[in-house]
Amino acid sequence: MDRGGRIDQFNRRYGKSEPQA
To answer: Region labeled Disordered — which residues (predicted)?
Structure first.
């Protein structure tokens, strides 16, 4: 995944570098 794109939003919400839902 793109580190700093969609993950950036999840990072602030879930607090994970790469959220796997």
So the answer is: 1-21
Q: What gap in Å lies between CA 14 and CA 12, rounded to an integer?
A: 6
Residue pointed to by tokens 């969609």: 6
Please tell me the number of Cα atoms within 13 Å of 19 on its side-chain side: 14
What is the dihedral angle through the alpha carbons of 9, 11, 17, 18, rounded to the nearest 10 degrees? Answer: -50
Which tens digit of pLDDT belongs to each residue from 1-21?
A: 555 567 777 777 766 656 565
Q: What is the pTM of this model?
A: 0.19
